[in-house]
# Entry
Amino acid sequence: MSFWENFWDIFWWFFIVYATFAFLYALFIVIADLFRDQQLNGWWKAVWIFFLAFLPFLTLLVYMVARGKGMAERSMERARRDQSEADSYIRRATSASPSDEISKAKALLDSGTISADEFERIKTRITA
# Structure
């Protein structure tokens, strides 16, 4: 009998720890979303923070129901912006310099692989 009591105690302890971390995660996500929202003025942000401090669980539920759609949209917009910035950085970091591209095109011109017109088009595209 003692084994089952200990098992359920351990199970309950894991459940409480999981619920605590889930609550804290949701709390930090809501606070981050509050400060990320450009349409909400400072007084409304202060009201939300006040209620999060004194009625945290109820305020979390109300916030997620009332502003959940905007919260998801802001999160998706931020993810898109971060992805485009990362892609832009990768393109800049991996692309060769214009002088390298022109020297490669010149080597192709000298070997007869491309014509002089193609070389001029490549050069104008790179320098533009």
